[in-house]
Amino acid sequence: MESEKENIYILLISIHGLIRGHDLELGRDADTGGQTKYVIELARALGKHPDVAKVDLLTRRIADKNVSEDYSHDVESISDNVNIIRIDCADQVYIQKEQLWDHLDVFSDNVLTYLHTNELLPHVLHSHYADAGYVGTRLAHQLSIPLIHTGHSLGRSKRKRLLASGVKKEDVENRYNMSLRINAEETTLGIADRVITSTNQEIEEQYGLYDYYQPQQMRVVPPGTDLSQFFPPTGKESKTDIAKEINRFLAEPDKPMILALSRPDQRKNIVTLIEAYGESEELQNNANLVIIAGNRDDIRDMDRGAEEVLTEILITIDLYNLYGKVSYPKHHLSTDVSVIYRLTALSGGVFVNPALTEPFGLTLIEAAACSLPIVATEDGGPIDIINNCKNGYLIDPLDKKMIAGTLLSVVKDKKKWKAMSVNGMEGVKKFYTWHSHAENYLKVIKPVIDKTEPVVRMKLQRRTRLYRNRAVFSDLDQSLLGDTTMLPEFSKELKDNARCSSFGIATGRRLDSALKLIKRHKIPIPDALVTSLGTEIHYGQYLTRDTAWDDHIDYLWRANKVRSILNDIPGLRLQNKIEQSRYKISYFYDASIAPDVDEIRQLLLQHEQTVNVVFSFGQFLDIIPVRASKGLALRWYSEQWEIPLDHILVAGGSGADEDMIRGNTLAVLVANRHNEELSDLIDLDSVYYTKEPYAAGILDAIEYYDFFRTCKVPD
């Protein structure tokens, strides 16, 4: 039994979820979603290619009265040369992917038996997700067949998101079998001949965290888009119900539309877009703004994050008096999305994605397919898309003048608009259809099959712990900025040790303000970003908010009561709106006329307000919940992520950093510190007083503590 090389036989493996060739039950559960659709579309597209003789998609056979009988059939034909092959996997009832791990060896043995009954072996295996990777590595060894892998979702990133959402670490392990999953991913990365991803950012920021990550094996092949759904305007769109719903908000509906379409999520940065529009009279005169932010009935009934974003959207529209210029419909159908793109194109408008981070950017491709020019954040997927399609501009998502100016240039320059419109449609056909996906996919796997592109293995070693066991935390303004000459070396040191150590920033700034500085100075996006003096915690490139921390610090917090008590205190003046947040009230403090800070604390206690009062730089006074501070947020992170405090290096320089530095952490006070505010720390053995300022001081402390090796205070 051997493989013939005239035409390629590809074996796809996708084990979990409900997989069939018609009427996909997408969204039925967490296991039947994007991956299910991807593998079916990939199999179809490959089957149509003249160089492909046969495609089999292996999944598990399910005989369960609670699901369709379709999933119990051994073979389902999708086309003449494409089949779904269902293999028994111990118990045939439908179970979640997390419960499949104990059955994967049985599945693998049954696949091997099936393949031995065939006349030909596949030329290549392609595993999808960690469970299929586990099976694929066994089969690749047993049959000496090359293995291609696509992770879809990675365990290390998933664990971050689960911990951020408040799931306890023990539950993450017990419910999701996370150790098994990550170990399977590590093994697969060590064995796979090629790993296919959607974006370069996915390679660097997700796969790069793995011990067996081998950058020379990674290949970017963006997924395809359905051009039967996303296509240029036909002229009929203006008569649709969704067009009427959008136009009812607008005084001049014939103006070009600026379209933003996303979930009501803080990371999508919709409010900044509205502010940019509201601060540009010229942009308002030339275009309407259309905000499609999910569906809503009563905002008060939505989850906290969506409620906050939608409320702020409405307040911002009112603040800038944008009535008649901004449309924000309450409802739309999924089938309306492509129509909305085409409506915007008909108007001579533009699609904008101002998200703070954007790993891929599927909406940008959909908009381009509908002939819309795009303006998007200079992060992740949009960089690749605009580079390929030449159909728009990248923007700093926190620079409101840049956002407004870029949008204005697109809607005013009709000649350039037309060129970008055409470029976008052609770019999608070339790079982002299923046909182009299949072409690019085969360019990746053919050299592996033919052995014309050698597979070079790196000498790699697993770390002794499954997860990171140390972290560097720094203040932003006092410890990183000021003298930025050493920032590149500091960033390199973090990157070189990213597999064993996390990086965190703890700042008094709001999230958007902190991100603006991080981007401007090219500081790596931290694994943990503690903002607003420890009242908010966000994790990783997706800026996943730790909602469990929100619930924890909400205890005894009465913001309106605090404001009313301090309203008439001389020498206190509220700072600008940008410095205020849900759990932080910030004042300017004039020491010449204001009461002593201890008197203010006593006043709040007398009115039964148990809070933390933080005084810094001799002029800033912040009131935050009693359970919140930089130090308490740091300790929450330490507990959630199982990183001992004596393996956390903290860098600070002002009084706001004091409770991070006290206790069992390793600490460094940079040379540009505020000595008066930190004078109480002078006798602490675990505090290193460096003679170097800013980032140079942190690098000095890393060497002083031998942080990435022994991690201890010198004798």
Helix content: 25-40%
Give the integer mean of the pLDDT values.
Answer: 90
Low-confidence stretches: none
Distance between the termini: 67 Å
What is the SS-derived class? Answer: alpha/beta
Walk across the major sheet and give the strand order.
Answer: 3-4-2-1-5-6-7-8
Task: From the alpha carbons, calculate the radius of gyration and give it in angstroms.
Answer: 28 Å
Shape: globular
The major beta sheet can be summarized as: 8 strands, mixed
Q: What's the number of helices?
A: 25
Give the number of DSSP strands: 26
- Strand % is 15-25%
Describe the structure.
There is one protein chain. The protein has 715 residues and is α/β, with parallel strands linked by helices. The protein is built from 25 helices and 26 strands. The strands form four sheets. It has an eight-stranded mixed β-sheet, with helices on both faces. Helix 2 crosses helix 3 (129-143), helix 3 (129-143) crosses helix 6 and helix 9 (270-278) crosses helix 15 (400-412). The radius of gyration is 28 Å and the shape is globular.
Notable features of this structure?
globular, 715 residues, 8-stranded mixed beta sheet, alpha/beta, 17% strand
Topology, element by element:
Blueprint: E1 8-13, H1 34-47, E2 52-60, E3 75-79, E4 82-87, H2 104-116, E5 124-128, H3 129-143, E6 147-150, H4 155-164, H5 169-176, H6 178-191, E7 194-197, H7 200-205, E8 218-220, H8 241-247, E9 257-261, H9 270-278, H10 281-286, E10 288-292, H11 304-319, E11 326-327, H12 336-346, E12 350-353, H13 362-369, E13 374-377, H14 381-389, E14 392-395, H15 400-412, H16 414-431, H17 434-450, E15 470-474, H18 487-496, E16 501-506, H19 511-520, E17 528-531, E18 536-539, E19 544-545, H20 547-553, H21 559-566, E20 572-574, E21 585-589, H22 597-606, E22 611-616, E23 620-625, H23 630-640, E24 648-652, H24 658-661, E25 666-669, E26 687-689, H25 694-704
Parallel strand pairs: 1-2, 1-5, 2-4, 5-6, 6-7, 7-8, 9-10, 9-12, 10-11, 12-13, 13-14, 15-16, 15-24, 16-17, 24-25, 25-26
Antiparallel strand pairs: 3-4, 17-18, 18-19, 20-21, 21-23, 22-23
Helix pairs in contact: 1-17, 2-3, 3-6, 9-11, 9-15, 18-25
